[in-house]
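Weekly modeling sync, notes
Attendees: S.R. (lead), two postdocs, one rotation student

Agenda item 3: backlog of single-chain predictions. S.R. asked that every request posted to the team notebook include the full sequence so nobody has to chase files. The rotation student volunteered to paste the first one in as an example of the format we agreed on. Action items at the bottom.

Example entry:
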Amino acid sequence: MKLLFSAKERSSVLKKMQQEELYDVLIVGGGITGAGIALDARTRGLKTALIEMQDFAAGTSSRSTKLVHGGLRYLKQLEIKVVAEVGKERAIVYENGPHITTPEWMLLPFYKGGTFGSFSTSIGLKVYDFLAGVKREERRKMLSREETLRREPLLKEADLKGGGYYVEYRTDDARLTIETMKKAVEFGADVVNYAKAEKLLYENGKLVGVEVADLINGHTYTVRARKVVNATGPWVDTLREQDGSKKGKTLRLTKGVHLVFNGERFPLRQAIYFDTPDGRMMFAIPRDGKTYVGTTDTDYTGDTAHPVTTVADRDYVLKASQEMFPSLKLTVDDIESSWAGLRPLVYQEGKSPSEVSRRDEIFRSESGLITIAGGKLTGYRKMAETVVDLLVSELGKEGSTGYRPCSTRNISLSGGDVGGSAGFPQFVATKTQEGVKLGLDREVAAELAQRYGTNVSRIFALMPQAVNEADQYGLPAEVYAALLYGIDHEMTTAPVDFFIRRTGALFFDIAWVRRWKDGVIQAMAAQLSYTEEQIARYTGQLEQALQEAAVPSQANS
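Predicted structure, as returned to the notebook:
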């Protein structure tokens, strides 16, 4: 079987990109926005390539609040269009990938003197339901003080008046990106990670391609395209500078930090959306035996590739958690892990970070570079549709026609062909039984089925090989099988790719990472023929990631 999306084939993909006479579109940036554009463009018939200088989703797309949400707080800012559009998108994202996204009832408690009161919460949620086209069974409910505490006894009781109860959708942002990317590859897109746009290429003042550096082996390739899309998230202005077109509107980067607590120490029953003492809003969400809380929203001017949690960030989120859940008496010692991510927002004069619009905008330069900036995770599919509409229009004016209309509304993502959300529970039950027959613990089999969807069959098919080979690396067979699948079918190139973006374990099970890291590095070294220098570099990279997740920085940004 030909491996279309294997880390072993990265060089082959780059050579193919160079040999391709002319792509219709080259996308720079492999986060959720770039992945969405690649899938939309390819399914319409555009010859499509995509490069990402880090791993897929390594920037903002693995470091969000991990919610596909309608943005209730944007109602406060009267961002009606944003709420309506992304609210309706939630259900589409869910149906196309029920293994990645799941409904989560959210409780919004309101207190005497707080941002929300009973009337404003009721009206706000009713408007939200209407704008977002919420299903009847998921429409908001208003709860009394007693009902609110019954649903979440850990809440602060003093001055509690009641609560609003409504549905959001929890997701794995990195896996949403990976599954979208895999689907684009399945349709024929050429996609590669650790490949940097080193230099933009021009003819007669028009952008015609990119010189691409392979950051793994140092080779350089020339990739030519009719259109180049800048979907680099926090780096869009960097690419615009290369293009000489950074003028007018620019980016404003803000940082968001989340803390992760063990669920036994912070046994949250129910996702909570709550007021902080300074008037911002924060989430506390139970997930896989953990509870995570966030987020901050502060201007950021540090290393774009490397935002970290600072002591000030940690203390801010911890203090808000202590105020809302006082009976727990949480301390810094209860924090297991954390992550920091950047929001690439379009700058607006005179607004605080939390007030800046999350709307996306498209900029087109004189050279032809098309930049997509801003936006939200939830709206990635519509953003992609808008960009590809523009591409099709421009290509049409240049004589290229016959492209199909957008169809991504009804395309299951990789692993998502399980009969929609209605068929997913039965799918998981069936696959769990299959895994048990292969010798897996029931809990492990169910976890694999939920994470990988229909692709779990490929992991199960690798189990006989894994049983034979895993011991030499000191790994359980299921970890080794998932790793082999990641290398061959998800372009897992470095150990941090596996532990952060393919499994989420660095954030949600840091002890698991510490337990299996040496075996995973050895196994990847064997599979991908790492040099001694690469082993040392990748080991250092993972140790640094572990340190940053567990220990806050003393820096200010």
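Discussion: group reviewed the output briefly. Residues 129 and 139 are 6 Å apart (CA to CA).
Action items: rotation student to repeat for the remaining queue; S.R. to check formatting next week.
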